[in-house]
Amino acid sequence: MRIAYVEFDEAEAWRRAGMKQLLKLWNELLLMTNGDVEKALEWMEQLWEQHNITGGRMSFDEFKAMLEREGLIRRGTGPENEGEGPGSYELTTKGERSIRKDSLDQIFRNLKSLGDGDHRTPNAGASLERLPETRPYSFGDMSSDIDYNISIRNALKRGIDDLALKEDDLEVYETEQHASCATVLMIDISHSMVLYGEDRITPAKRVAIALTELIKTKYPKDSIDVITFGNEAEQVPVHRLPYLSVGPYHTNTKAGLQLAQRILSRRKHTNKQIFMVTDGKPTVILEQGQIYRNVSWILDPLIVNRTLEEAELCRRKGITISTFMIADDPHLVEFVDKLTQTNRGRAYFSALDRLGGSIFVDYMKNRRRRVR
User: Fold this and answer.
1) What is the pLDDT of residues 206-236, one digit of tens each?
2) How far apart are CA 215 and CA 225, in angstroms?
3) Please, what's the b/e burial string for 222-250 (b: 16 or more CB within 10 A of its CB; e: otherwise)?
4) 73 with 84: CB under 8 angstroms?
5) What sign results for the dihedral spanned by CA atoms 300, 302, 305, 311?
6) Residue 307: its H or E element
7) CATH topology for 181-367?
8) What is the pLDDT of residues 65-93, one digit of tens each?
9) Could you say which DSSP state residue 124 is in?
10) What is the DSSP-derived secondary structure letter of residue 176?
11) Distance of alpha carbon 303 from the chain centroid
12) b/e string for 304-320 if b means 16 or more Cβ within 10 A?
């Protein structure tokens, strides 16, 4: 092998490494501003001026021009801008895809125990995935799984004068089962997700974006659906995830579980599971057509019991609930303990910077087995 050496180009090296870091910062700002490009640009410009983040190698105007040139942002052309020239900047499809890829890379970079992310079951069985190992043929094996090279070699061991392929000569490839999995990710968007000076919604969005990107690219036969729950529950299209924002004051966990069950009932996968990211106890339900709210700081028995009924229904349907708590309020811990016991699911206390790793590891583990 011949190796060609060239003179080190410091400017080119900086461009590659520096632009990668700048785009990561840019994508983070987009998540924090709920996909508002104009606000993200304003924040980026402030950082540029205060910290000289490129060391003078690139101006902010050049960076903004690069974003537009690369097709990550564009001028809006909606009806509201007719007759007024180009509108404000907005994200493009490529820009949304960049956020998804960056979110996935960031979470996987922080994982230590996930390995290569494969999620085959440890059992051998019928599947389209062949293993290099073979075994003797037995009644019921697929003819398409026969390894004819080894089978003919076995027949040749008896001599070329008696060359006839017999059943005892046949060997088939071992195959590996892959458990299919349907997942619904529930994200709490109640007001508490941005209270007390801590941004909890941005890490939750990043995890949702990364998990959907992982499943759609690496495990396309799995399904992933995302729903938000505040005063009500709503299914969110994947491309709208960067634009999620906190709005409703209350937390309708019951409505979220009900919608998750309806979605999973349409999925024909081996495993079905719900991942719930929350930092607050349930505070509202719709009871007999009327909104019933919790008016105290403690758990409301009626709201809790109605929510636990949905957790029990999930258990009967074989749907496991994994709850990821991003707060340590005693009332939240008490509620999650009850929900976990009712559903026989799992609960995690997860710091915001470890939320992605916790969810990804649990997804991989749950996908390796059948949920009863």
Assistant:
1) 888 988 888 888 888 899 999 999 999 999 9
2) 10
3) bbbbbbbbbbebeebebeebbbbebebeb
4) no
5) negative
6) helix 301-316
7) Rossmann fold (3.40.50)
8) 999 999 999 998 654 444 444 568 999 99
9) B
10) B
11) 29
12) bebbbebbeebbeeebb
Q: Hey, is 351 helix, strand or coil?
A: coil
Cα–Cα nearest to 64, from 92, 96, 97, 40: 40
71 neighbors 23 (Cβ within 8 angstroms): no
Strand-strand pairing, 130-136 and 171-175: antiparallel
pTM as predicted: 0.72
Element (H, E) at 165: none
Element (H or E) spanning 266, and its range?
Answer: none
pLDDT per residue as tens digits for the range 108-149: 766 644 443 343 444 433 344 566 778 888 777 777 788 888
Please state, in angstroms and as integers, the Cα–Cα distance from residue 169 to each residue in 158, 160, 357, following that order.
10, 14, 48
Distance between CA atoms of residues 303 and 296, nearest Å: 12
CA atoms within 13 A on the CB side of 16: 4
Rounded to 5 degrees, φ, ψ at 275 are -105, 120
Secondary structure letter of residue 318 according to DSSP: T
Residue type, 199: D
Per-residue pLDDT tens over the stretch 53-64: 877 778 899 999
Please state the separation of Cα 324 from the chain's center in Å.
14
Q: From CA 345, how far away is CA 273, in angstroms rounded?
A: 9
